[in-house]
C-alpha cells in the first residue's frame, strides 16, 4: 500500500526486502527533504544570521518539532538530536552521577540490544553498581508469568530500569507503560529503547511517563546516523554532556565553561543537519500514517505467522500475538525470529539470498539473549509499511523450497541414482567417473551458483568429521558465522561445523593439503584463499564468513607446522 512511496522499490522491483528491523528503506519525502536542504538551503545551524543560515536553522528546528509531535512530547527542548539510539544510551549512562540515583541495581531485560547493555556495564563499574536480568521464557516469550517476575524484581534496590519497548531480536512488545509507572513508585530511572517501536506503534511520552526514550531515524524510514534522545527536563539539566565542543556552550574560558540549556547542551559539534531534516520528514510521514501502517503490518504478520507455523522444522521464538490482541503481554510487532531444526541457518539463508530476498541471520546484536535461548543465532524476518502479501508469500515459498533443498542435499547422490533407476537407466559412465574425481575438479566443472552449491553439499560428506569430545575451545575457529572446530584426530586433520557449505569448503581445503603433502610440497605456506577464489568460491563467502574462512585456513596452516 505504501510501496510506491519508496523510490528504492521502483529501482529494484525484484527485491523482496524483509530486513526492515536492521534498517528501513527511505520514504520519498525523506529523500526530497535531504536533497532540498543540500540543493537550496545548505548552511550550518545556530551560528549565523544570513538568510540561508536562518533557513537551515529553521528546517532543523522544525524537524525537532515534528519529532516531538510524533511522540506527543509538548516541550521540544526535551528532544535531543544526535547520531542515534547508541549515542543516546551512551549519553545517559555516561552522564548520570551517583546523586541522581537511588538504589544499587540496573535492571535490564534478557533480550536487550548490545547498545542497551554495554553502556550500563560501564556505568555499573564506574559507580560500583550491579546488573540484574529479567528473564524470558525458554522460547523467548514475555507473558504474564515473566511480567509478574519483572514486577517482583523492580523494587527499591533498583536505580535504573533500562529496556526496549520492542525487542529487535524477537519482536516482543513489552508493557513499558506499566513498568515506567512501577519504576516511578520505587524512584528508579526508566530508560526505554524505542528503536524498534517507533515505526510500528503509537508512542505517547506523556502517557508512558518514562524518564528517557531513545530511537534511531534509520529504522523509521529516515536517514542513517541520526536519532533522538528524549529526556525528562530535570534529568537532562543534571546529566553531564558526553560531547563537549562547539555550540553546546554559553561561555568558555581557558579553565572553565558554562553549558547551554538542553537540548543544545547535548548537541556539541556541527550536527548531521541533512539527517535531522530527513528525520523530521520521516516523523511527519509516520504521524500521518501510523494507524494505517499498524493495521497493514498486523495483517501481514498474521499471514507470515500462519505460514511459518505450517513448517514443522521451524522453532519460532518470542511472542506470537499481533499487537492489540491482549492488554499487556505476549504481543509482537511484525517480526519473526526462528531456528531450523538440524540445519545451519546460514546455509538456509544462502539459498534464500539467491532469490533476491533480504532477511537477517545472526545474533542481532543480542548475544546474551542467544545464550539464554541456547541458539547460535536466528533467522529474522521483519515487516514494514512497504511490505506486501506477495513479499510474504514469495518468502514462504522460497523458505519451504530451501528447507527441502537442504534436507534433500543430504541425499542428492541417492536421488540421482534413484531417478536414474526410475527412468530404467543404469548410472551412466559420467556419473561413475565423476564419483572418483577430486572435489576440486568437480567444483571447477560445475557451472553456475546452483551447481557449485550442489557440489559443495556433496563435498561436505567427504570431510573427516571431528568427534564431539574434540569440539572444545582449544580447537575452535571463530568468525565463520557458525561454530567450527579443526584439529588432528587419528593422524588426519578433522573438522566440524553445522554448516554444510563450510564443511564442503573444508573438505576441499583438506583435499588440497593431502595433495600437497603427497607431492612433498609445502602445505603450510600454500595460498589456500587464492585457491578458493580461483575456483570461484568467493561467491559463497558472505562478509561475515570471509573472515572465518581465512581464520580456518590460518588454523589449518598452524596445525601443519
Ligand atoms: N536498540 C535496538 C533495539 C536496535 O534494534 C538497535 C539497532 N539495531 C539499536 C538499539 C542501535 O541503533 P543504532 O545502531 O541506530 O544506534
Kindly list the characteristics that best describe this protein.
globular; 3 domains; seven-stranded mixed beta sheet; Sufe protein. Chain: A; 44% helix; Aspartate Aminotransferase, domain 2; four-stranded antiparallel beta sheet; alpha/beta; 561 residues; Aspartate Aminotransferase, domain 1; 21 strands; 20 helices; 15% strand; binds 4'-deoxy-4'-aminopyridoxal-5'-phosphate
Can you tell me about this structure?
The protein is an alpha/beta fold. The chain folds into 3 domains: 3-22 and 291-405, Aspartate Aminotransferase, domain 1, CATH 3.90.1150; 81-270, Aspartate Aminotransferase, domain 2 (3-Layer(aba) Sandwich); 417-560, Sufe protein. Chain: A, CATH 3.90.1010. Helix content is 44%, strand content 15%. It contains 20 helices and 21 strands. The strands form 6 sheets. The protein has a 7-stranded mixed β-sheet with strand order 2-9-8-7-5-3-4, with helices on both faces. Helix 4 (85-95) packs parallel to helix 5. The longest helix has 37 residues, at 273-309. The chain is globular. Mean pLDDT is 93; it is low at 411-430. Bound molecules: 4'-deoxy-4'-aminopyridoxal-5'-phosphate (PMP).
Short description:
The chain is an alpha/beta fold.
Structural class label: alpha/beta
How big a fraction of the residues is strand? Answer: 15-25%
- Write down how many β-strands occur, each being a DSSP E stretch of 2 or more residues: 21
Distance between the termini: 61 Å
The rough form would be described as globular
What's the number of domains?
A: 3
The CATH architecture category of the largest domain equals 3-Layer(aba) Sandwich
Radius of gyration equals: 27 Å
- Across the major sheet, the strand order is 2-9-8-7-5-3-4
CATH topology of the largest domain: Aspartate Aminotransferase, domain 2
User: Helical amount among residues, as a percent range?
Assistant: 40-55%
| Chain-averaged pLDDT | 93
Using the coordinates above, name the CATH class of the largest domain: Alpha Beta
Bound molecules: 4'-deoxy-4'-aminopyridoxal-5'-phosphate
Number of helices: 20
**Low-confidence segments, ≥5 residues, pLDDT <50?**
411-430
The CATH superfamily label of the largest domain reads: Type I PLP-dependent aspartate aminotransferase-like (Major domain)
Largest sheet: 7 strands, mixed
Amino acid at each position: 500500500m505504501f510501496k510506491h512511496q519508496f523510490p528504492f522499490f521502483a529501482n529494484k522491483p525484484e527485491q523482496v526486502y524483509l530486513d526492515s528491523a536492521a534498517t528501513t528503506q527511505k520514504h520519498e519525502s525523506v529523500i526530497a527533504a535531504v536533497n532540498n536542504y543540500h540543493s537550496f538551503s545548505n548552511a550550518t545551524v545556530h551560528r549565523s544570521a544570513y538568510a540561508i543560515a536562518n533557513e537551515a536553522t529553521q528546517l532543523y528546528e522544525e524537524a525537532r518539532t515534528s519529532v516531538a509531535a510524533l511522540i506527543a512530547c509538548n516541550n521540544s527542548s526535551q528532544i535531543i538530536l544526535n547520531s542515534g539510539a547508541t549515542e543516546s544510551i551512551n549519553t545517559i549512562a555516561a552522564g548520570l552521577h551517583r546523586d541522581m540515583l537511588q538504589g544499587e541495581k540496573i535492571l535490564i531485560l534478557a533480550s536487550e540490544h548490545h547498545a542497551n547493555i554495554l553502556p550500563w556495564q560501564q556505568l555499573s563499574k564506574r559507580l560500583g553498581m550491579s546488573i540484574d536480568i529479567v528473564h524470558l521464557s525458554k522460547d523467548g516469550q514475555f507473558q504474564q508469568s515473566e511480567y509478574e517476575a519483572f514486577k517482583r524484581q523492580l523494587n527499591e534496590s533498583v536505580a535504573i530500569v533500562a529496556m526496549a519497548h520492542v525487542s529487535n531480536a524477537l519482536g516482543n512488545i513489552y508493557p513499558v507503560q506499566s513498568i515506567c509507572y512501577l519504576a516511578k513508585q520505587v524512584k528508579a530511572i526508566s530508560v526505554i529503547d524505542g528503536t524498534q517501536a517507533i515505526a510500528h506503534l503509537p508512542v505517547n511520552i506523556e502517557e508512558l511517563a518514562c524518564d528517557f526514550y531513545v530511537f534511531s531515524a534509520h529504522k523509521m524510514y529516515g536517514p542513517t546516523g541520526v536519532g533522538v534522545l528524549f529526556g525528562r527536563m530535570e534529568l537532562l539539566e543534571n546529566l553531564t554532556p558526553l560531547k563537549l565542543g562547539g555550540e553546546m556552550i554559553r561561555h568558555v574560558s581557558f579553565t572553565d565553561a558554562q553549558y547551554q540549556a538542553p537540548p543544545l547542551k547535548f548537541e556539541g559539534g556541527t550536527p548531521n543537519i541533512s539527517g535531522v531534516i530527513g528525520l523530521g520528514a520521516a516523523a511527519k510521514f509516520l504521524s500521518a500514517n501510523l494507524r494505517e501502517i499498524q493495521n497493514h503490518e498486523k495483517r501481514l504478520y498474521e499471514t507470515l505467522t500462519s505460514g511459518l507455523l505450517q513448517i514443522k522444522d521451524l522453532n519460532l521464538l518470542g511472542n506470537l500475538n499481533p499487537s492489540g490482541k491482549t492488554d499487556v503481554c505476549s504481543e509482537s510487532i511484525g517480526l519473526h525470529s526462528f531456528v531450523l531444526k538440524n540445519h545451519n541457518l546460514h546455509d538456509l539463508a544462502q539459498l534464500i539470498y539467491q532469490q533476491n530476498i533480504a532477511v537477517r541471520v545472526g545474533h542481532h546484536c543480542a548475544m546474551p539473549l542467544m545464550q539464554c535461548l541456547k541458539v547460535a543465532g536466528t533467522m529474522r524476518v521483519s515487516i514494514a509499511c512497504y511490505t506486501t502479501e506477495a513479499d510474504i508469500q514469495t518468502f514462504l515459498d522460497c523458505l519451504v523450497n530451501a528447507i527441502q533443498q537442504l534436507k534433500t542435499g543430504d541425499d542428492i547422490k541417492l536421488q540421482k541414482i534413484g531417478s536414474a533407476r526410475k527412468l530404467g537407466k543404469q548410472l551412466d559412465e559420467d556419473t561413475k567417473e565423476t564419483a572418483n574425481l577430486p572435489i576440486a575438479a568437480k567444483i571447477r566443472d560445475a557451472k553456475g551458483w546452483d551447481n557449485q552449491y550442489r557440489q559443495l553439499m556433496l563435498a561436505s560428506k567427504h570431510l573427516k568429521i571431528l568427534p564431539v569430545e574434540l569440539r572444545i575451545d582449544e580447537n575452535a575457529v571463530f568468525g565463520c558465522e557458525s561454530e567450527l572446530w579443526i584439529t588432528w584426530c587419528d593422524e588426519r586433520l578433522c573438522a566440524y561445523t553445522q554448516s554444510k557449505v563450510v564443511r564442503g569448503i573444508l573438505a576441499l581445503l583438506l583435499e588440497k593439503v593431502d595433495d600437497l603433502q603427497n607431492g612433498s610440497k609445502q602445505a603450510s605456506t600454500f595460498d589456500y584463499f587464492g585457491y578458493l577464489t580461483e575456483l570461484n568460491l568467493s561467491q559463497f563467502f558472505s562478509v561475515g564468513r570471509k573472515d572465518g574462512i581465512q581464520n580456518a585456513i590460518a588454523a589449518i596452516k598452524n596445525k601443519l607446522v
